[in-house]
Amino acid sequence: MKKIIKNGTIVTATDTYKADIEINDGVITQIGSGFYSQDAEVVDADGCYVFPGGIDPHTHLDMPFGGTMTKDDYETGTRAAAFGGTTTIIDFCLTSKGVPLKDAVETWHNKAKDKAVIDYGFHLQIVEMTENVLKELPVISKEEGITSFKVFMAYKNQFQADDETLFKTLIAAKELGALVMVHAENGDVIDYLVKKALEEGNTEPIFHALTRPPEAEGEATGRAATLTGLADSQLYVVHVSCEDAAKKIAEARSKGIDIWGETCPQYLVLDQSYLEKPNFEGAKYVWSPPLREKWNQESLWNALKSGQLQTIGSDQCSFDFNGQKDLGKDDFSKIPNGGPLIEDRVSILYSEGVEKGRINLNQFVDLVSTKAAKLFGLYPKKGTIAVGADADIVLFNPKVERVLSAKNHHMAVDYNPFEGMKIKGEPVTVLSRGDYVIKDKEFVAEPGRGQYIKRANYNEALVKKEDAVPSK
Ligand SMILES: [Zn+2]
After folding, report:
1. CB count, 10 Å around CB of 130?
2. Is it the case that residue 128 has pLDDT exceeding 60?
3. Which residues have CB under 8 Å from 230's CB, separation 6+?
């Protein structure tokens, strides 16, 4: 059945205007006014912004980590994402040394199918660059439409890859038209600092932050950027947490290196002092990279506003406080890293960014949706409101005031890192390919309706053409 969204204010990465949207067969077929169809359902968006559905380029659903599994799987995770106004995620498919890439991808397909309620794609982790991997990578990239490869420079003896692997991945990605993603922290230095802290009897959560200093992130970011320039390749730095790293990205960009940066809501809102909460509560705030001293937040906001950082990921990686985070009760290095953010990513950026005058509405849409669509080969099917695009649409009421809490969130975890935080604005209705997923704040979709997306190659020209977003 056709739908017509009436009376809303459409906001894209470039424009804000009043118009109606006609949807047919899951696709936007007209934008304008005065069109009417007897067989169409009218959706009233009066008082709402009409945004393209959020695109979360960074999630870890149903993922093994530190002897446990992330709490949210594809069903609870994508449902919570939809409640929060996100209609597409790109999740990280982990791989293991010596195991064919296709087996890893198959494992991830099995996690998602029959469960996902919104559309999804995969990034592929690269742990080694053997003859087998080099042979298999072009096949996987083409057949599966996986056009981004993730390399960890940290988590020694677990995920960490060496510089040779990173460099070879950069070269392979250039040839295949893929974007390399890095977790940029110096894993060797961190490993030494962690061991030393534990030897000295320092076991509390705060030592997680103190053993992963901003210099370790800045150094790795600069190294990855330099190697990218040397390989004449392209790089996307995930979860930039501090000024050190943001500056390294800006510096490389000024030299013409093709490099992009993502930050996450926790680094914009929370800070290192949360790790000092009593009764082990600091464990709720253990991310890698860690939360930083508060002064870094202004640098990150400025980098978002000026276009030196381009996207907001959730780094959704949820563990219960009771039963999972407490694995590290006597040893901070055993606390599973990560937190639940897939649901509140869009709303926090709206409230803290737009409402507080740090970024404008169009920058907000670019950061939570459009730029990720362009970087990761989803645009213009996803990431904008235009004729021919998928009808992935969020009706967002900017006036509602509410309080974030584990009591009313939809993620499967027993805490919310933003507990008690007052925010303004709320997604009310969320459409994915024209279907209601959330209707008037109620979940109305079936698990398994989400589709796997084969993504197009990285296209530098597409991202750079509209790189400059109007400033406020
Ligand atoms: Zn991550």
Report:
1. 13
2. yes
3. 167
Residue 250 predicted with pLDDT over 50: yes
The structure's pTM equals 0.97
Residues, CB within 5 angstroms of ligand 1 (ion): 315
Are the CB atoms for 274 and 282 separated by under 8 Å? yes
pLDDT at 471: 42
Query: pLDDT tens across 33-45, in order?
Result: 988 778 899 999 9
Q: Is the pLDDT of residue 59 over 70?
A: yes
Q: Is the pLDDT of residue 306 over 70?
A: yes
d(CA 396, ligand 1 centre) in Å: 27
Residues 6+ apart with CB under 8 A from 395: 5, 8, 43, 45, 48, 49, 50, 427, 428, 429, 430
Give the other-Cβ count within 10 Å of 96's Cβ.
12
pLDDT in tens, 6-22: 999 999 999 999 999 99
Cβ neighbours of 228 (radius 10 Å): 25
The contacts of residue 217 (CB under 8 Å, 6+ apart) are: 184, 185, 186, 240, 241, 242, 244, 245, 289
Place of tokens 């993502």: 262
Alpha carbon of 388 to ligand 1 centroid (Å): 32
C-beta separation of 123 from 93 below 8 A: yes
Neighbours of 314 (CB within 10 A): 32
- CA gap 261, 269 in Å, rounded: 18
Structure tokens at 418: 């933003």
Cα of 280 vs centre of ligand 1, distance in Å, is: 23
- Please provide the distance, in angstroms rounded to a whole number, between the alpha carbons at the two ends of the chain: 39
135, 100 contact by CB (below 8 A): no
How much distance in Å is there from the Cα of 316 to the middle of ligand 1?
Answer: 7
> 10 Å Cβ neighbour count for 393?
29
Distance CA 300, CA 243 (A): 7
Structure tokens at 273: 């002092």
What is the CA(60)–ligand 1 centre distance, in A? 6
- The C-alpha atoms of residue 160 and residue 106 are separated, in whole angstroms, by 22
